[in-house]
Amino acid sequence: MKKTLTTIFIFSLIFGCSNDEDSPKPISTSINKIMTLGASRVEGSRPDYESFRYNLWKNMIENNWTFDFIGTQSDEASYPSFNGFDFDIDHEGRGGWTSGQILDGIGDWLTETGPPDIVLFSSPGGNDALEQLSYSEAVSNINSIIDVIQSSNPNCIIIIEQMAPGHSEIMTTELTNFWNQIQEEVLDIAENKTTINSQVIAIDMFTGFGDNFLADDVHYNEDGAEFIANKYYNALANLLD
Question: 156 or 1: which carries more pLDDT confidence?
Fold first, then answer.
């Protein structure tokens, strides 16, 4: 994929307000359409806590990648422009949503946005853990979400997180057990769902991540958002190059 300049876990129990537009957004024609998928860690809520999207966007703009963030949601927070460009506010994050809710919505969202080339699947199963929902059902939902994405675009690259933990003060035995299980499960999901045409790649977001990266019990502060964004950027730079 060519490199040229262009414009171009989710541990919250509080549901964010929908930012769906009254009318669908135009379907992107970029050669690298990137959907950031998840819940509050994707959505962000400035000034209370940060999404990784802004730092990732800046990294990609600074390094002259051709891309477009896509999604039915729009981030209405204030972000400084960078290198003469305004932040690409499109995303697919909804605060508090579980894997089952994402599964219920993903088909319609993909119809509205058109098929993505790359999906960044943030903190899968995090809200399921907080709500003490079934682990096995969360795993089934995550697999089904990937199936829907690959049906939309059989050549899609999916980067799925081994998610960063919540604050140590909330990591009960139950949450820690869920977290440990899902970290291993994500490796199996990535291997089993990878096809000849569609890579599913697990990305380690927990090594080096600590309480100092959190704005509250579960959401990123500025340093945490930069940490996560850098890990995504390193993965994407290898893929796009």
Answer: 156
